[in-house]
Amino acid sequence: MNPESLARSLAQHPFCKDLTQAQVEFLAGCAKNARYDAGEYLVREGSLADALFLVRSGSVAIESHIPGRGSVKVDTLGPGDIIGWSVLLPPFRWHLDARALAATVVFCLDANCLRGKVQADHSFGYAFTLQLLAAASQRLTHARLQQLDVYKAELR
Amino acid sequence: MDIWLLPRARLGELIATLRARGYDVVAPTPRDGAIVYDTIESDADLPIGLGDEQSPGRYRMVARGDAAVFGYAVGPTSFKRNFHVPTERLYRVERVGGALRFVPEPVAARKVALLGARGCDLVALRSLDRVLQGDRYRDERYAARRSDVVLIAVHCGTPSASCFCTSMGTGPRASGPWDLALTELTTGQHRFIVETGSAMGLTLVRELGLRAAGTLDKIHAAKVPIAAAESITRRLETDALGARLAQNLDHPRFAKVAERCLACTNCTQVCPTCFCTTVEDHTELDGSAAERHRRWDSCFDLEFSYIHGGPVRPSVRARYRQWLTHKLSSWHEQFGSSGCVGCGRCITWCPAGIDITEEAREVGSPRKAEKTT
Amino acid sequence: MTDALLLESMAIVRVRRETSDTFTFDLDARPRGGFRFAPGQFNMLYAFGLGEVPISISGDPLKPAVLTHTIRAVGPTTRALEALKKGDPVGVRGPFGTPWPVDQALGKDVIVVAGGIGLAPLRPAIYSMLSRRQVFGKLCIAYGARTPADILYDKEIEKWRGRIDVDLEVTVDRGDPDWRGHTGVVTGLLRRFELDAERTVAMLCGPEVMMRFAARELESLGVPAACIYLSMERNMKCGVGSCGHCQLGPSFVCKDGPVYPLTKVEPLMSVREL
Fold this sequence. Notes:
The complex is a heterotrimer of chains A (156), B (373) and C (274). Chain B has 373 residues and is of the alpha+beta class. Chain B contains 14 helices and 16 strands. Chain B has helices at 11-20, 80-83, 119-133, 140-145, 165-168, 199-208, 215-231, 241-246, 252-260, 266-270, 316-335, 345-348, 356-363, 366-372, and strands spanning 3-7, 23-31, 34-40, 50-55, 58-63, 87-96, 99-104, 111-117, 149-154, 180-185, 191-196, 211-212, 277-283, 289-296, 306-307, 310-311. In chain B, helix 9 crosses helix 11. Chain B is globular. A seven-stranded mixed beta sheet of chain C has the order 10-9-8-7-11-12-15, sandwiched between helices. The mean pLDDT of chain C is 94. The chains are: A alpha+beta (156), B alpha+beta (373), C alpha/beta (274). Chains in contact: A-B, A-C, B-C.
């Protein structure tokens, strides 16, 4: 894919909806397309956070491996979601596993490239971080609701 | 409307006439140190020469030092219990073949004459009528008991210190409809000035052969509820009260009153408009039949708001708020009037002396709400 | 004389186990000439000698010969109902309450958001819409359950999922190693549907906190608050607004609800212990 069409399709992703066209083009400089088959890991807990993923299609499970219980899913993500805000936060390590549940297509944003751009252009950095924060906030809200265990039966 | 004179000596005849027509006469009568409403047989059962002293958390029946028969305010009972009865069996449930058979308990319909009904209690009865038989669904058991009732009001001359009917627009003069309304005059010859408000009322007057009241008596009688109104000091500002309360549901005053409220349910028991009920089930020991009983319930009970998982209103704060705002705010939206008639019973019979007018004033005062929240 | 408190006896013709604590029974409505109701309405069910519980009707409104309820056994009465078998009698009175706005959704997109046993009161609305599928826009169903084992009507869900004219997503709060579907809360699914938000009617049923979150998410997606409907739960005892138990602010959930537009209940939901 040439850079212009990559920027065009990147602009379609909900993560970019509040970025200017120039900012999306700037961001596209770090982006490439990637595809994962069902069962393939996008990231592994503890390994280096080297990319941020914007999911375009498919389904990705966020998991943690618990000895004796196997891989426990805590969330599943799909089109429009992002994976990997650890890319901006030292020590740049993944906290959880991300595994494709079905054939999954993502934009893969290189971590070093991103960090460089965020440093170089603070107004871009602000817009980008705000998007990241919005996604993080929504994810946290959902996690809190999940923690409430609202469907649990209270026996009398 | 003609106005008649009933000498005190002939009050018994009015009662006898009603009884002869098949009416149970329910009237004030002294019992266990309080003046309650119950069936009476003659005027001798009335609280002759008795009065009451009431204040927040306090009730005393006292000798008046005269022979007045309606010389007190309202006691712990109201007419609610005659129609919306405290407890009743609704059905017997039997197993017949492979099915359940629900056998309704018949309602013993009786003709009732309410003698000595104060303005506040008559408005309360109309309020109950609206809730239980004026809604989309009607409570047939209530309707059956309420179907043949003669109302003989008394224009109140002796409000208590708990009363605030003037604020609620329910007294001391009893607004209609009633069949007869009496005003008691004890100076000079002990007598009642009688107004008729219906064909039934007129029939009773004719049957007794009452003569018309004199002009002076009419003037004396008209002054009685006016003087009573002037003696009432308890006030509740009702202007936009419903909306003011609804806007202050998180007012800190509710937490404060909850420190005093015992959630004892006294206020809901004595309130003439509180209508909440619950149904209880009983099974015969051999399991062959069961019964369903309905009884008065109270929003102060923890169980009242139970849904699976727990009560919706675990705190006394929330339960007091439910009661207060239902009476004074949501009742308007539900039934088009206030649920409070200003009878003051909840104030007198609260063991902690909580005063609904004071609580409503605090919660409904936006200025204070802003300061404290 | 009509007596809203009078129960009638109906016989169980079929019992199905849905999950470890939830079951469905069909009652034979033929002897009484069928049982007509609107999707979203509930009945009071009576277990001999123990009392009544409000249970939403979960069957097909176009099949009035059977009256279906899905019940979660959480208290003495529901546990007694759970113990009943085919042929046993149950006391029934109803139907009570307001329906889902199915007719208001004609020509619009519809999103059904269910949590836990909240799918049961929504199923009649789904049946009703599927019976005349072409008069609605998109039909989206988002369902959240606690674990894969808690999913209601799983065979039916697979059938709906297989339809080209239904978008359905199921998620669980806690997956297990065999679970291949979504994990996470049902609100997280809502963004995935491609709805014409301004012309969408939403029907929500589940735990109150789940509905609050889902309603907020739908509003942020652009669904008008007046088009978001919720089914509320309070202690319904009489069904006709005369026992006083189910009050939610000025409204009686049994007769003014259980289905309300968000505009009506939003201010009340934010008050604690109301």
